[in-house]
Specification:
mainly alpha; Dbl Homology Domain, Chain A; 3 strands; Rho guanine nucleotide exchange factor 10-like protein; DBL_dom_sf; guanyl-nucleotide exchange factor activity; guanine-nucleotide releasing factor
């Protein structure tokens, strides 16, 4: 079966990778149904729940360096090795998030973090791991034949230009601030949760914190872009990989820009929601701030003072002032 999957991924086309993904899901779903669920018919949107950590793609491995390579070919080979190493490390980090943190927290009794909060904290991690497990299958095939083809750009295009990748990463990036907020609050209010995090960190081989693991998806595409930029610099004109590398860089840079913009908008919405809690007429302000294409530029607490004819101070009151791109809103502060 694995030979068939490798063959399906070999071409590096979108169709080939999609066939690979479907084949893996069918195979693992069938085994999961047979060995774990027995005769039950638990299904989710037509697919059984599958643990993506059970998918074990072959580790990409470069063979011995052949003789007679040009300096550029040697450098490209080293860059490919960096891609393989960084991707392997990234996939292992995602697995650690699930295996060392999410799964124990979900199974722990008594609960130190509710199932709802666990889902919010680890939102979309499984789907991101699934995307990169599929990428590793295709990468393994491409690395095995590197000295014959020397192509990698089309693989990135096929793997990361799908709307599914943007969707799962957007959801993860947009939820990141919320996830960290839940973790921070739980550390302050639940000593057992804080102790669990400390214990996991001490037991890990590199002492990386949960935050250190969960920030890696935020950093992944900028890392890919730097590696592909190095690869392109060392790919001569006329090389069969050059055009696909340029396309891959364009795709990844566009994806990174979209993620940054969506993260900015999500953070602004969260900031507005937090700010509106501090004012009295919350519902009306929410409608003003979230309607149309308005952007919050500044929020300040100012003191409104009223003076009489003789210059005496009649009253003084603090107000919350919101400066938007098309209006200025002055609101009463809710001191409760």
């Amino acid at each position: 079966k694995m030979t068939q999957l490798m063959r399906a991924a070999k071409s590096g086309t979108k169709d080939g990778l999609e066939k690979t993904r479907i084949a893996v899901m069918r195979k693992v779903s069938f085994l999961h149904r047979k060995d774990v669920l027995g005769d039950s018919e638990e299904e989710d949107m037509g697919l059984l729940e599958v643990s993506v950590t059970d998918i074990k793609p072959p580790a990409p491995e470069l063979g011995p360096m052949p003789d007679g390579l040009s300096p550029q070919q040697v450098v490209r080979r080293h860059i490919l090795g960096s891609i393989v190493q960084s991707e392997g490390s990234y996939v292992e980090s995602l697995k650690r998030v699930l295996q060392d943190y999410r799964n124990p927290l979900m199974e722990m009794e008594p609960k130190v973090l509710s199932a709802r909060k666990c889902q919010a904290v680890f939102f979309r991690v499984k789907e991101i791991l699934h995307c990169h497990s599929m990428f590793q299958i295709a990468l393994s095939s491409r690395v095995a034949e590197w000295d014959a083809t020397e192509k990698i750009g089309d693989l990135f295009v096929a793997s990361f230009s799908k709307s599914m990748v943007l969707d799962v990463y957007s959801d993860y990036v947009n939820n990141f601030t919320n996830a960290m907020s839940i973790i921070k609050k739980a550390c302050l209010t639940k000593p057992a949760f804080l102790e669990f995090l400390k214990r996991r960190q001490v037991c890990s081989p590199d002492r990386v914190t949960l935050y250190g693991l969960m920030v890696k998806p935020i950093q992944r595409f900028p890392q890919f872009i730097l590696l592909l930029q190095d690869m392109l610099k060392n790919t001569p004109r006329g090389h069969p990989d050059r055009l696909s590398l340029q396309l891959a860089l364009t795709e990844l840079e566009t994806l990174a820009e979209k993620l940054n913009e969506q993260k900015r908008l999500a953070d602004q919405v969260a900031e507005i929601q937090q700010l509106t809690k501090s004012v009295s007429d919350r519902s009306s302000l929410n409608k003003l701030l979230t309607s149309g294409q308005r952007q919050l530029l500044l929020c300040e607490t100012l003191t409104e003072t009223v003076y009489g004819d003789r210059g005496q101070l009649i009253k003084s009151k603090e107000r919350r002032v919101f400066l938007l791109n098309d209006m200025l809103v002055c609101a009463n502060i809710n001191f409760k």
